[in-house]
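ok here's the first one, seq then struct tokens
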Amino acid sequence: MGKTPILRHFDRRDRISAISGISVSPKRRRLNLYFQLHEKNIQQTEARDFLRHLLKHLRGCVIVLWDGGRPHRGRLVQELCRRSRRLRLERFPAYAPELNPDEGIWKLAKQKLANGRPRDRCDLMLSLLDALETIRTNRKNLRGCITHSELPPFLP
């Protein structure tokens, strides 16, 4: 007879949260993936820090399309927008994940992590970093995340 399987799972407080985005350079249409991972829920401090990271690494005007989540609307984010003339935030309509190319990134990452069995949060973090780096280096995947979204076409 078979044995009842024992499923081990992470404690609810054990988590990895991520913030990410695909960049498209306006002249050459070059694509890149930026991301940050955190061991706690993403709040306005992390959202602001991610925007600072983008401003540090991207030249010229930076237009960010993102959802209207609470961390994206916080006072710290608003202050950064007022101080940085290069940064412009545009919101997706409410409940429109089909417009967000970043959803494709997470679909790809989940496929790479499927059937994995990390021993702990550190092991999961390493697997996630590996998956995201693999996605980042595959420009075809990045392009596919944009073209398969329901955004109006803008890539050649």
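and now the second one, same deal
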Amino acid sequence: MPVRPRQPAGLPACVASLRRVHEASGYPSRWPDTAAAVAAEHDLVPVLDVVADSAPAVALYEQAGWHLAGIQLATWTDPDGTVPVIRCYVGP
């Protein structure tokens, strides 16, 4: 699937889509704050956590240029009480 380059104008639609997924399925298990926007405002690099067994999401972020920084247990629990393994990425 082709992925077009990230553009600021596309962010509101992406956030709206993610909100619909979250409301329907509970993913992501923690709703993100505006971490990427805050990072950009302070000339910092955005980071994200991806649940390790979510192969399509892992492939998407890696193809988009995100770089794996490490793998660890999450600091949160899923609704079923399990602690997922996460892959931690830094922005492209």
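notes on #2: The helical segments are 11-25, 35-41, 55-63. The chain is about 35% helix and 20% strand.
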